[in-house]
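User: I'm new to structure prediction. If I give you an amino acid sequence, what do you actually give back? Let's try with this one:
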Amino acid sequence: MTTTHTKTISPRQQVAPAGPEFSRIVLGLWRLGDWKMTPQQRVSFLEQALALGITTVDQADIYGNYLSETLLGEALALAPHLRRQLQFVSKCGIKLVSDQRPSHGIQHYDTSTAHIIASAEQSLRAMQIEQLDLLLIHRPDPLMHADDMAEAFRQLQASGKVKHFGVSNFTTAQFDLLNSRFPLVTNQIELSLLHMQPLLDGSLDQCQRLRIAPMIWSALGGGQLMLPANEQTEQGQRVSLALQRIAGELDVSPSVVALAWILKHPASPMVLTGSGRIAAVAEAVQATGVQLSREQWFALWSASAGKNVD
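Assistant: Good question. You get back a string of structure tokens that encode the predicted 3D arrangement of the chain. For your 310 residues, that looks like this:
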């Protein structure tokens, strides 16, 4: 059956019962420096994303060798009105060895109270904004002290520098630990047809139980799903064939189908884009308007798993 699609605008959704309202498609800017855009081109890119209903941007202190947030800040300085139209997400907790941070002797994690606060404040300066809508702990720290982290969250919230807090790449147990000290609104996790582990490890079940929407990174398998067949793994070849078949049934692209597969999950995931091409961003938004049948969804699951359900 062929479906005719009109222009789709990204819907908005409440991330958690007491959390922020974000666009369901989130503009991921970790490769902003690789796109070699001028400041004015960055402004145009943000405005085009807004026209598609994307109001939420995702950053991290370490992205682009600690420079991506600064590149975004340069664009916002040229177009200050964008600060009022966008919600800003950033992450902290990883210390990379970098010429931008020469004091880091070895790559490691730091989730101390002082570092979380200092990182959030540096992100605000770099992006030239006054408040983060959401701050995430980028990776679970084996030495993380939940009480110290919660203290950082309380201070940043009381000062008006950060509205909400969450985590990224946390296990369910790690999430529960920190959430017992301070309410978290999301877990940003990897999920794609090439990485289905969150369907099995309890991550998405926990999100449903707590009524929080996960944020999904690498939704297209880091671009592997779009590679030519001869460059793909056996799993990738199976999935690509299934994507192409269902894309033909729905009259959309295979990437739209791959994202619609994620968006169908009842945990109401938000999907991060990672492309500097507005056409690819528009396809991500289009996926919010595509409904896969259960049969189509499980056909893709089976292609990835290499077997039918038991």
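You can read the tokens as a compact description of the fold. Here is one thing that stands out. The chain is about 40% helix and 15% strand.
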